[in-house]
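so my prof wants the structure for this chain in the tokens format not the other one, which i didnt know existed until like an hour ago. anyway here's the sequence
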Amino acid sequence: MPPRSNPKPPARLRVAAVQMKFAPTVAGNLVSIERALKRAARRSVDAVLFPECATTGYSCDFRALNRAELGAALARVGEWAKQYRINVLIGSPFFAGKSLFNGLVVFDRSGRQTYRYAKCHLTAADRQWFTPGNALALFEVEGVPATAIICHERRYPELVRLPVVAGARLIFHPNAGLDSLAVSRRKRGGKDGIVARAFENAVPYVFANSVGPQGMGRWSAGDSKIVAADGRMLCLADNENEALIVADLDLSEATGKYAVEALASPRFLAASWRRMVTLVRRQAMQAAK
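here's what i got, hopefully its the right format
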């Protein structure tokens, strides 16, 4: 985990999740991103999460993605983070060397890019374009240790449990639904396992999804949400409209209690858990360089 810029984490953190309808162009998505950041600034938000691939949309031709245009888009997001004095966590493809990753890019209030997480578990569609990541997310927002998963990765609970055991006390989850309308409808109403993931780890959970038609006959269910560490639903967006949802998180409740207890019991697994946590921290630091 990168060194702390804020040695004393705040007692409360005001977070927001942005629910977006993707535009067909990067320029169009940037308009929506800045509009959401202006609204978040007016509400004194500390950290705002955008969906997976918010800069490009999720139905673009990633093979034809313009490296310079994408880099300029992320630079613009960093400028807005500085302008509006907000920590910004944005789902976006990014290039590293010759590889393209499906990632989450983190900017602090000064506009500095502090972390990039690359999605590890790729869907069949992802694998046409993206290289899988090889680290679990472990970073800080306002001095609060945090982790992240992206979209499909909700199906792999160890991607959350291990970083929480390693110290994370907040989960960020950018998402971009890309389903048939029938499947999208089944995912609505907040019943998607996210509440359980918050409860079983005793940490708050911020989920930002796209919404509505995604192109190519695909749909996204919306349902962006913010969940407390005890599983209470603090905010839930609808299934049709763009939205900015905001909640104040009481970080004294973000104990990671149940995850941390896994280090001690059952005893025959304790040594293996500790080894895995060491690897998670080491790999997260390597990925941050």
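also thought this was worth mentioning. Residues 12-288 form a domain with the Nitrilase/N-carbamoyl-D-aminoacid amidohydrolase fold (CATH 3.60.110.10).
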